[in-house]
Amino acid sequence: MKRFLALICAFASSMFLFSLEKTDLDIRRDILAYGLENEIVELIDALIKEDESGLQNELQALFDSTRSSAVKESLLKYYGEKNDPYPKEWALSIIADPWDHKKTTVLSIFSYIEKMKAQEAASSVRAILKSENTDYRDSAISLLGSIGTEEDADFLFDFLEDEFSVDEKTRLVIRQNVMTALGKLKAEKYRVRFEEVAGNEDENAVIRSTAAVALGEIGNPESIPILESLFLDKDPLLRSASVKALSGYSSEASTAIILEGFKDPYYKVRLDAIASAEKLKLNESVPYLLYRSKSDPVESVRYRSYEALGLIGDQEGYSWLAEQFANKKNAEGLRLKAASVLAEHHKTSFSPLLLKELISVLEDEKKIKYRYELLKLMIAKRTELDSSVCISLLTSKDPTTKSFGIDLFELYKFTEAKSEIEKIAADEKQGALHRRAKRIIESDKTTTASGE
């Protein structure tokens, strides 16, 4: 009988202790309720990347109660990324009278309204632009370009034509911002005016290039001749604008200019040619991209060519990138760039090669930083990994490598690796690794129990 009572007491004690164990969700609730500002902001940043947090009530309560501008701004970013209307009415009320609020908070509201495409904010934004206070002028112009209507386009054009009591540099910035906003609004009504500005050789080159890019956004084929003519200019800023603007069209003439941009002596024009080819998914650009990848004297152009090849490259492009990754004579940065592109666009076919490369450096301490970068890439891209790799990482003497092993176990829950996680969880000498492993084990127990 005593033995039976002892068993009952032991069971009750274990159940009491189990009830005290907190799940990840409980821990997150505690952070939102009692955490420091930086802890809360860090958690909100993590929640932005997740599909569903199960914390909607807690987040709403926090938004309503917090006096921390950093937390408020992080929550606005969260709600904007999730396209969540919860703070919308509050945001609209602040933007209607923003002058007594912290500038960073008001700018966060601008970003939220832009994400939500809240056209009902337009009248308040126009009022801000009409006021004598210029704190939000540039941001307000940009916001109208994102959420505005034809009425707002007319307002912006009138704003463009106004005579401001400002220095010439500020005047140029205002004109740039307004033309960019009108381009985003696809304001066909003002296309001819933009063509006049773009073609005016007496006009400032920055303004001409901004007008050209706006014409590309508007997308009327009648603007192509003026955009083509800009590519013949000696100023690389105008050639760059020409190539960028022509990405708004699908014609033989625009394609020819974009391909010619790959051979421009100024590297920024080449970068814009790559971006335009990528935007239009120009198969004709693959030979140009391969050449730039192999031979361009500017590293940023070579790497940008890698990215475009991953998106629009054919089998030849894939094979070439795979060769660059496999070639151990290449710099590790170049190999990692090729790997990143291939993992992004050809994950299924490339994963076995990436796994093989990782295995080859698991025990090579001379390649430890390269190993870290491979692991970061593989975890970020969710490429093929197996339990043997996870076990190798967990049994490594290097704490950082072991930490990556815990990351893998948390993601994939490899059954074969569970005993190694349990060893780390039982070893308090392993510090932060011990605490992480213990939390994972306890979380798994709680999840299993709740599912029974």
Automatic annotation (TrEMBL):
Pfam families: HEAT_2 (PF13646)
MF-aspect GO terms: oxidoreductase activity
SUPFAM superfamilies: ARM repeat
Positions in coiled-coil regions: none
Top-level taxon of origin: Bacteria
PANTHER family reported in the protein's UniProt record: DEOXYHYPUSINE HYDROXYLASE (PTHR12697:SF5), PBS LYASE HEAT-LIKE PROTEIN (PTHR12697)
Record-given protein name: HEAT repeat domain-containing protein
Organism per entry: Teretinema zuelzerae
